[in-house]
Amino acid sequence: MYSVYVHASMRADLKNIWRTRVFDGREIPSKKVEWGKIDMVDAERRLLTHALMDKNNEYFILLSESCIPLHSFDYVYDYLMKTNNSFVDCFDDPGPHGNGRYVNKMLPEIQRQEFRKGSQWFAVNRRHGLLIIADSVYYRKFRDFCKRGEEFHNCYPDEHYVQTFLHIMDPLSISNWSVTYVDWSEGKWHPRSYSKEDITLSKLTDIQIIDENVHVTSNAERLETRRPCVWNGKKRPCYLFARKFLPETEASLVKLFINFTSATHGP
Questions:
Q1: pLDDT tens digit string along 199-218?
Q2: Could you give the strand order of the β-sheet that contains 68-69, starting from the edge strand earlier in sequence?
C-alpha cells in the first residue's frame, strides 16, 4: 500500500532515530542539506528518484519528521489516488518575497510573470515526479540564480523551483495548495512549532476541517486571497497532514489519534 524513503541527517545521533521497524532499511544515500540552499531541492529530487524506481509507487508525498496525519490512512489514500492532480502550493506573489526574488538571468526559460512561490511540502503523481527528476534546464536556472544574498534577492529554491516548474509545464493539473498545513501566523522566518500544551482535540479538529486555502502577498498591501479547496469538483478539507509538531507532543498525539482520525470517512 505504501513505501517510506528517508533522507536523514548525516549526523549519527539523529540517524539513530530512524532505526525503527517502519523506517528500517528505508534510508537512501543522503548528503548534507543547508536551509535556504539548492541542497533542499537536491534532497527532494533524490527522494523522488529512489521512490520512482519502484513501478508500483504512483503518488509521492514529501513530509518531515515534524509532520502528523490529520486523517485515517484510508482517507489519505483515497484523497490522493482518486484524483489526477498533484498538490503543489503555488501562487503569484508580487511582493519582495515572491516575484521580488526573480532575477533576469533566469531568462529566457523563466519569465517574471511565470515565477511562482509556495510551500515546499508537495504531493505529486508519478507523471509530475518524473518531470521533476528529468528536468535539467529549469533546475540549473534555480541552482545558479536562486540563492541567498542581496545579489539574488534572498531567493530560496525550495519555495520556488517545483512551484514554478510545474506551473510552467502543467498548470492545469496542479492544485494551488499543499495538503500539509503550516501555521505562518506568527510572521517569522519559520512557521509556528506546536508544543505539548497545544495538543487538544479541538485544535486538531480546527485544522482538519479547514476547506479554504489562503495566500497573502508579501508587499505593503498584504493582500489576502481565499479559495475553496476543490477536489474532483467538490469542496473538501484542504489538509491531510500538519506541521511543525515538536517531539514532546508525541504522547499526547498518540492518545488523541484514534478518536481524532475516526471523525472522517473518506474524502
A1: 999 999 999 999 999 999 99
A2: 68-69, 241-243, 180-182
Confidence of residue 35 (pLDDT cuts 50, 70, 90): confident
Cα 6 from Cα 19, distance rounded (Å): 11
Grid cell 481565499 in the structure block, residue: 226
Q: Is 234 helix (H, G, I), strand (E, B) or coil?
A: strand
The residue length of the chain stands at 267
**C-beta atoms surrounding 163 within 10 Å:** 24
Instruction: Judge contact between 214 and 225, C-beta under 8 A.
Output: yes
Average pLDDT value for residue range 177-185: 93
Which pairing describes strands 86-87 and 174-175: parallel, antiparallel, or unpaired? parallel
DSSP three-state, residue 87: strand
pTM of the model: 0.91
Residue 81: φ, ψ to 5°: -80, -20
* pLDDT score recorded for residue 10: 62
**Which residue shows C-alpha cell 515572491?**
98
15 band by pLDDT with thresholds 50, 70 and 90: low
Give the whole-angstrom CA distance, residue 89 versus residue 233. Answer: 18
Strand partners, 214: 226
Residues 258 and 266: beta-carbon distance below 8 Å: no
CA-to-CA distance for 242 and 163, rounded, in angstroms? Answer: 20
Q: How far is CA 35 from the centre of its chain?
A: 15
